[in-house]
User: Fold these one by one.
Assistant:
Number 1:
Amino acid sequence: MSAMFIGTRGYEQGTNRVQHARAINVSDFFITGTGTDIGKTWVTCALLRHWRATGRRARAFKPVLSGFDPMTAEASDAGQLLTAMGRTLDAAALDEIAPWRFAAPLSPDMAAAREGRSIDFDALVELTWRCRSAQRHASTSALHPFEKCSTLIEGVGGVMVPLDAQHTVRDWIAASGLPCILVAGSYLGSLSHTLTALEALQKVGVGVTAIVVNESIASSVSLDETMATLRDHVGGVALVAIARAAPSSGVAALDFLLG
Ligand SMILES: Nc1ncnc2c1ncn2[C@@H]1O[C@H](COP(=O)(O)OP(=O)(O)OP(=O)(O)O)[C@@H](O)[C@H]1O
Ligand SMILES: [Mg+2]
């Protein structure tokens, strides 16, 4: 099995702000994950490439990026996103899609503190809203009425990673008003991590459009078993499996689900 769906529950758990945001543009998503290195950038790049190949317009942002080394910028999350968008990697593009860059490969609050800096949460939320409206304004005049246009915002680390002493990534997602895609794995222990992250998001009214189960390598648990067990516990949230052996069908399934 490379991809499967379980029925969507919709957004009835969302706050008014989330529902309002959906009414503006249903094609913008926040890409979060159960933890670091789970595959957020991989999934975002795969969607961008799939959409480019099928003629859909999309942009992606990685506003907060820790572990950034200018000497290897191309391999950074921002570099990968720019490549997947078919854009040139230069200082202006980096500043545009990843304005909060930190050298230390640590949680954002710690990485910022190492440089005597901090993340201005309100400015981060403001930027997230601007990313979306800039995309819309740049595109709507040239768009066919039925043409799709999407903005993807990649988070940092997992759902509950601190951004500063008061805020976590979950607060950022909630304030952004975006529905999210939760990237998870299939390693031993992933079930609890996935269900915990899902509950944390739903508790504050964030709509979870899909859980992407990105197959973990060298796992003692199969992807099929992980999907089957999750299905019993996610309350109807859509599940999409990305199998290492056949990733493209999982990406196509995710595209279909996102509409
Ligand atoms: N389905 C996949 N197929 C092949 N490689 C993958 C897949 N998913 C993830 N990887 C690889 O695993 C590593 C971690 O993935 P990725 O960088 O996307 O994680 P992340 O969640 O974005 O991490 P971060 O928290 O640093 O942003 C990368 O080298 C990536 O290329
Ligand atoms: Mg990443």
Note: The CA atoms of residues 40 and 233 lie 22 Å apart.
Number 2:
Amino acid sequence: MYFHLLKKIINDILTEEFHGLTWEEKQEFLAKVVAKEKMPILKFMCWHQLNMIHAGLGIVSVFSPSTVEELQKVISFSNEFSLPLYPVGLGSNLLGSDLDCGVLVLNLSHLHYKISHPLPKEQLRISCAESLPRLAHQLLSLGLGGLAPLSGIPAALGGALRMNAGANGTHVGEFVQAVYGFNLLDGTEYCGKFSDKDWAYRQSPIPKNILITAADLLFFKRNPTEEKAAIQKEHMRRIGCTPKGHSAGSVFRNPSSCPAGKLLEDSGCKELPPCGVFQVSPEHANWIVNYSGKPGRTEDARKLVKQMQKRVADKYQIQLQLEWQFVPQAEGNAF
Ligand SMILES: Cc1cc2nc3c(=O)[nH]c(=O)nc-3n(C[C@H](O)[C@H](O)[C@H](O)COP(=O)(O)OP(=O)(O)OC[C@H]3O[C@@H](n4cnc5c(N)ncnc54)[C@H](O)[C@@H]3O)c2cc1C
């Protein structure tokens, strides 16, 4: 009964049938409904508020569960009404939709995961919400380390595992012992165990329909002073090489033959005119930046991406593969 009411409210609010109410009043009304049922917080937000490059003008309903129990309720709700769920970490690699759509967004930044049993030494169970930079620092007090090469990646663990985020010749998959989560298509629990060879450059073996809630990671014993120095060194390296402006990281994966940035630069992509608030960074041809920080249309960014892809394809007959994630533009299964 409650789920039906919630679905109706989401529909009505998105289709503006709550005539006469301001956004604040709509939010307030909604907060009362979800609080009554102990559902996680639900908010209506614009996609551009959920990603670092500020792309996507569409409105979505965003659930922020803080416990696994709350998360399970949202999954049941999505399955009962076939409303696709789209997980979001720190939003450092994704661009939203320009359309108001029925996708439910799961903001996992508040999800805490209880460690149910002590794990063997040097192994920790980490919540998908934990950010890589913070985790690298937290390990210091435990005399553990190994994460310094990845400590500058602005990622939550869930997003990092989905993308197999990497830097300095290391990738997050190398630390993984087990991944926990839920199958978003039927709500069943998931546990995946992988070996090193299952992970590849920016490719994760975790099935697309799995929502990652936590993972067991194996670290190394490290001298805290040396590890802290390595984190600081990586921080300084990043400051020196990260293009200025809001971004979503590298646009394309590097083909095996040559770095994407070189192909894009040699194809003249830095000279492409801006599309809306987005432009190719003059510092790095594989980065699109939003200097203004103002919300932009994802469609504009997509246009720029296509022009870049075409220039490289025309000149080198190489089809660059996207590293960026575009969220689904319309209602439908997110996978
Ligand atoms: C300044 C900057 C520097 C960057 N440097 C690097 C770098 O050095 N190396 C690198 O690899 N990347 C880099 N990136 C890209 C980005 O940080 C990584 O891809 C990162 O892994 C994304 O993590 P996130 O938490 O922000 O995920 P999001 O961008 O929020 O999401 C990325 C994808 O993961 C999915 N996802 C998120 N959470 C979950 C979950 N819990 N379960 C299942 N799926 C989930 C989302 O649905 C989406 O498809 C950089 C980005 C920026 C802006």
Note: Residues 298-316 form the longest helix (19 residues).
Number 3:
Amino acid sequence: MNCPRCHGTMVTDYFLDMEDSGDVWMSGWRCLSCGEVVDPLILQHREAQQAHQELIGAISQNPANKTQASVAVLSKKS
Ligand SMILES: [Zn+2]
């Protein structure tokens, strides 16, 4: 896996999951170059945000026909 910020090498690391009981370790990734930390929750959130922005972008690029733009994005993902 490459760093989303600097495209450097990322290594598996373990982090405390403070959201739950406070003593649960979860695995994630840490960038050796810039120190960027990505855990599964952050990754999931970023992917959801990116998909949402792609959908908004596709619709806004075709303001004349919103229905066709939505169909095009949905068929591309499936
Ligand atoms: Zn990095």
Note: The CA atoms of residues 4 and 24 lie 25 Å apart.
Number 4:
Amino acid sequence: MEKKRSGKEERDPAEFENVIEAMFQASIYVEVGNGHKTLFWTDRWLQGQSISDLAPCLSNAVGSRIKKQRTVAQALNEDVWVRDITGALTVQVILEYFLIWDLTRDIQLIENTMDTLCWKWTSDRMFTTTSAYRSFFIGQHPVEGAKLLRKTRALAKCKFFIWLVLHDRCWTAARRKKHGLQDDDTCVMCYQASETVDHLLTACPFTREVWFRMLRTLGWETLAPDTQSTFLVPWWSAARKQISKDNRRCLDTLVILTSWLLWKERNHRTFDQRVRTVDDVLTWVYDEIVAWCNEHGTIYAISSDFGDRMTTQHLD
Ligand SMILES: [Zn+2]
């Protein structure tokens, strides 16, 4: 069970940070006034986008030190930005240069007005954590399962993990292989298949046993994913339709919590060579549920959802 550790594997937390950073960046833009506070190459000031986004090749032809300093006011003064371009002039760079040239022709700076940082997700464009949190779940495009997720009571960190699952942004072995970060993408739970996020959370034999035994505790073993269940969201949606409305929140919370712990188990196996059995994972899930009920009882009130059931019908 020895897995090679490489420097690359330690990148994962940073990748996670990058996703949050990218989402934050995607949520803000600048309304340019006098252009003194806005960075020409990197801030989102041109039709809500940055030049790095609009013209990535052109932007790569500019030194990073210049990018961190050049304000819009400086750049537009006698088209100083053109002199910032020092890299190779490939066809793509030149095409992008024309694009930015055209886009910057009609910009009028307003001398007595400060640049304003705007937040996309509220009508008054002021940043709030609630709107930031909601934007994670609404996103710019409707995503299957996102509505399901918003309504579910679960800790923010778990919901955020599911948000990444829905957007297929988890750094699974399959994804890392696709990006050339590793050669082997075999699932660390079953060693039988490629480790995609849907495999890990739904199709993997290890995972299916966890789901089956977990759901059996609640008398819901028929809802467990079977050999035909390949993807998380279709399985989850179908399963919740088979139970009464009152019970759906319980199932949703359980799905999110269990998926999150399965992901953590995958990380323990991948990075720490620590292996839990199905029994261990089940105990872990129950412990987490009890901890939630104690800690968040008044907020989440999940004890009424399944805390009671758990205490009366505990593990085999
Ligand atoms: Zn597997």
Note: The chain has two domains: 7-119, 144-312.
